Amino acid sequence: MNIKKYTHNKTFKLEDGSVLPDLEIAYQTYGRLNDKRDNVIWVCHALTANSDVLDWWKGLFGENDLFNPKDHYIVCANILGSHYGTTNPLSENPQTGSPYYMSFPKFNTRDLAAVQRILADYLDIEEISVLIGGSLGGQQAMEWAIAEPDRIKRLILIATNAVHSPWGVAFNESQRLAISADPTFHSNHPDGGKNGLKAARSIALLSYRNYDTYGISQQEVSNDKTDDFKASSYQNYQGEKLVKRFNAYSYWYLSKAMDSHNVGRGRGLADEVLKKIKAVTLVIGITSDLLFPPAEQRFLAEHIPDASYTEISSFYGHDGFLIETEILTKEIGSFLKRTAYGSHIVTLHKIA
Fold it and tell me: Of 92, 130, 170, 222, whose CB neighbour count within 10 A is largest?
């Protein structure tokens, strides 16, 4: 990965008033800014992803895909608190000379969006042609489009919401309970909480997929089994896979940030706040999504001016926003064609 780093020379003040004396942002860019400077595609990534969007969103982003470096200037920044280079709980606290761990300041989705804006300023990008994000990435993109409505021209929100639900908070709290039950989490060590993180990932997977997904993909071929089930092996494998590439402290803080998401906080009713968005918007829901049910996306489309809504059918539940790239390419490609510059008339399609 060709990761670039930007060191912000000013103290970064978070929404709650706490500060980070040092802020480093890891990011990647693909392609070139054109002469008109109107080909920027900015990606806000989800919970445990990174800035290498050509890797984790293959089929939608790539040399031969809808969003390709030949036609677009693609930017993806690693989010605040994440494991992949941007300032996070394992970064050194300049006041102590040791990693922050649980002394890292709490942050929310508005803070995540503020970091994205800082990078855009540094890159001298005044106009973003398309801002896109799914899940936690969609929450960030939404906050950015509210904070800077004139900067964002087109907005694509996938499997996300205006206010994180009690259901979503409960899933995240269950994961944090698993992490905090691991005594090593409190040891202030980079590998602290590994077993807890493994259990947390197992819990998360149940919200990313659904009953039917497991019923087919993890179905046993024998009627004689009483132990060592495929579903058990799958949960263990996925938990271990995350532990190898992420840390429990970042996971803890990022899940808290997701819980914090509420566009109405300090502003008014969510439906009124969404009207601040000027970007022509496409909202995409997934029929089988248990974590961000389609009703949450319909709410967005109904209250964002110039918003259209489409709903895709997927076997993969919430993870469909990462997997169903063929149908996403079709829906997003159609949206881009009908919202080309000079044409801002978009019809809201409601699902009966």
Answer: 130
Residue 64: CB atoms within 10 A of its CB come to 7
Checking if the pLDDT of 348 tops 50, the result is: no
Q: Which of 87, 103, 86 is nearest to 95 (CA)?
A: 103
268 and 330, same structural domain? Answer: yes
Residue 311 structural domain: 4-165+262-338
319 is in an annotated binding site: yes
Q: Are 278 and 152 a contacting pair, CB within 8 Å?
A: yes
Structure letter (DSSP) for residue 79: P
Is 344 part of any domain? Answer: no
Instruction: Provide the annotated active-site residues.
Output: 135, 289, 318
d(C-alpha 277, C-alpha 47), whole Å: 24
| Distance, CA of 90 to CA of 82 (rounded, Å) | 9
150 annotated as a binding-site residue: no
142 shares a domain with 173: no
Q: Does the residue 351 lie in any domain?
A: no
Cα 38 to its chain centre, rounded Å, is 24
Quickly count: other Cβ atoms within 10 Å of residue 12's Cβ. 20
Q: 259, 280, 295: which is the final residue of a domain? A: 259
Nearest alpha-carbon partner for 114 in 79, 73, 156, 88: 79
Report helix, strand or coil for 74. strand
The 10 Å CB-count burial string (b at 16+, else e) for 103-137 is: ebbebbbbbbbbbbebbbeebebeebbbbbbbbbb
> Domain end: 259, 276, 294, which one?
259
Q: How confident is the model at residue 344 (pLDDT cuts 50, 70, 90)?
A: very low
Nearest CA to 33 out of 139, 120, 161, 162 is that of 120
What does the pLDDT look like over 106-115, one tens digit per residue?
Answer: 999 999 999 9
